[in-house]
Write a structure and sequence with these properties.
heterodimer; A: 113 residues; mainly beta; 51% strand; globular; B: 115 residues; 5-stranded antiparallel β-sheet; 11 strands; 0% helix; 55% strand
Amino acid sequence: DSGVTQTPKHLITATGQRVTLRCSPRSGDLSVYWYQQSLDQGLQFLIQYYNGEERAKGNILERFSAQQFPDLHSELNLSSLELGDSALYFCASSGQGFRSPLHFGNGTRLTVT
Amino acid sequence: DQQVKQNSPSLSVQEGRISILNCDYTNSMFDYFLWYKKYPAEGPTFLISISSIKDKNEDGRFTVFLNKSAKHLSLHIVPSQPGDSAVYFCAASASYAFGNEKLTFGTGTRLTIIP
């Protein structure tokens, strides 16, 4: 158990809809990262938050947004969903030490029909 | 643009033998490398890392080797055990990035240990 909790585990929705993925980091971790894993692809970095502030951005679509709340949990919002957005979405958190390893949740599998 | 490449999608090794997983990278700014292991229905789990100032790092049965001139790293598992059957991801980051953001992952190698 990594200590990172992601909900829901599975999500099935239709094209054009909006969904919210939730992540609770490990206790004490201030950084939260979101990654997307599409079929046969590696994990693609989307965005990082540190203590409530956006710290780094990857190839995140404009239809996607994220935030980190004062209690450090994070939400990833995906809107105007397309079939190609079907993927596994992972959240990870890390400690404050330099290059602390990322600890991943078990992911949310999103299926857009 | 695949900056971290794992060219072998799968690998089968007999129990007790050595497993060698390979990874190549193209970005010369990468200076920190990690291996993650992933079981089905779980998130990736950190296994071992290496900084570019080293060429080898060992942790129990796991050893990572880094060849900077060839932009190549490998993970050796010896002896291989059935519980090592998983997908292994290579990842890299650059020192201009704060902490571990923008970890760039390879596409993974599925390792199967044959009893």
